[in-house]
Amino acid sequence: MSAFSGQKLDKIPAHVPPELVYEYDNARDPRLLEDPHARMRSLILEAPPIFFTPYNGGNWVVTRKKAIVDITMNPEVYSNAFLVSGHQSEEHSGEHKDSQPGLMMLPISADPPRHTAYRTPLNQPLSAKSVAGLETAIRTMTNELIDKVLAAGRCDFLSDIAEPLPVTLFMKLAGMPTNRLAEFRELATQATSATVDHASREATFKRIAGILAETIKARQEKREDDLISHLLDANIDGRNPTFQEMLGYSIALFLGGLETVVNALSFGVRHLARDQELQARLRADPSLLPGAIEELLRLYGIASTVRRVMRDEVCHGVQFKQGDTVSLLLPAANYDDEAFPNPEQFILGRKEQHQTFNTGPHRCVGLNLARLEMKVFYQEWLKRVPPFRLDPEKKPQFVGGFNLAISSLPLVWS
Amino acid sequence: MAKIKFIEADGKEHQVEAQEGQSVMQAAMSNLVPGIVAECGGFANCATCHGYVDEAWQSKIPPPDAAEEGMIACAFHVQPNSRLTCQIKVTPALDGLVVRLPVSQTE
């Protein structure tokens, strides 16, 4: 069953107590589409800490930081090995998980210890030390994009800045042709869209795989200075990755690189557009930026993640059954009062680690690159663009699903 | 139970009681020792629990595996005695262990 079919279960499973049922459709909930992060906060205030929603095939939803950390740190009970092509697939669970030839996303779809073998080749090229070498290129790209919109006094932040910047950078890093930016971005949006039907999603993934396969084949013949070339020579338990594994890596990098930073940047800029005082403070003292970026990342988490329960287990007082699906709502955990006092407020200098990048073995491998892109972007944008605000004529549009997203963000300045 | 001494880059010392079976990183985190970030929570994925194992103790600790070695290469301010503290298990034999901390985990 597709994760976002929208279908509601006729019958709540017997092991789910009625007081833990809360109806929430992560793709279509009207309050989510009105303001995604306000909805995350409302789930903390209104729903049980772990609740069962009958929507989208029926699954548990966890919203509190402590429970999410406990689950992500226990991959033996809460498995990732059923995640295929960006949705859950029944036939890929259980004993077939290691042998099925579909589009496994790597290293996301592997559990430890296999996960470690798959993850290790990505750690070095995406480390803070390695990505620092990209800073000049990011600065140049950012300024080129600002040049195009500055005089106009307005832009749609999504299509003019947020999409081209991380997408171009990522494609360069991975070794993909940057002249196909619009096509790639459209495919990434379709692939992660919560409301496309199963067949369209499959077709989208086939097209993405086709494009990535071309790049992999080209690099098999001739290595370049890029991530795909690096991965081709990686050592996975004493051998190089197979073609299928290379596709798995590329799919995960494609979706991770093209969907997340776009949205994190956009939500962050939307916050600044609505808070002139904060804009002024950051313009006056750019040394505040790293802390401000962490707080914006906390307020505006993007991705959620899913686990399959491998054996009957009681988690924070809730009985899970083997085979249950558990959604970890990372953006909601950032609004958990237990971890973040006054969670709706922007407060510089919080010590508690936010959940936007997750915890545990599957913690985001691209976080160093994301942080660097955001730092350079905000430095240049605040230096060059005068005080900006939301276009009063056009409201931003939001999208739900595994990724919380904005599809349009019109800004004006004078 | 083992006593572990963490020494920050500026010389400030923190003596903690570590439980057997914990990692050295966990012992630091549960005692709020500054200078260890431990972003990934102990899976040798992030290199932000980097520490220098005192020379006298190096031979008493099993050497790093390939995953840990790969991540140490990603850490900042690496020295020959660099380790990821999340990969060192506390045993009674480590009573008295001294771990120095780098000037920063992230730059």
TrEMBL record, chain A:
Keywords: Heme, Iron, Metal-binding, Monooxygenase, Oxidoreductase. GO terms for molecular function: heme binding; iron ion binding; monooxygenase activity; oxidoreductase activity, acting on paired donors, with incorporation or reduction of molecular oxygen. The keyword Chloroplast does not apply. Gene3D superfamilies: Cytochrome P450. The keyword Iron applies. Signal peptide: none annotated. InterPro entries: Cyt_P450 (IPR001128), Cyt_P450_B (IPR002397), Cyt_P450_CS (IPR017972), Cyt_P450_sf (IPR036396). Belongs to the cytochrome P450 family. PANTHER family: P450, PUTATIVE (EUROFUNG)-RELATED. This is Cytochrome. It comes from Cystobacter ferrugineus. The lineage of its organism: Bacteria, Pseudomonadati, Myxococcota, Myxococcia, Myxococcales.
Automatic annotation (TrEMBL), chain B:
This is (2Fe-2S)-binding protein. The keyword Metal-binding applies. Coiled coil: none annotated. Belongs to the adrenodoxin/putidaredoxin family. The keyword Iron-sulfur applies. It comes from the Bacteria. It comes from Cystobacter ferrugineus. GO terms for cellular component: cytosol. Residues 2-105 form the 2Fe-2S ferredoxin-type domain. One of its GO terms (biological process) is P450-containing electron transport chain. Keywords: 2Fe-2S, Iron, Iron-sulfur, Metal-binding. One of its GO terms (molecular function) is metal ion binding. Pfam families: Fer2 (PF00111). Its cofactor is [2Fe-2S] cluster.
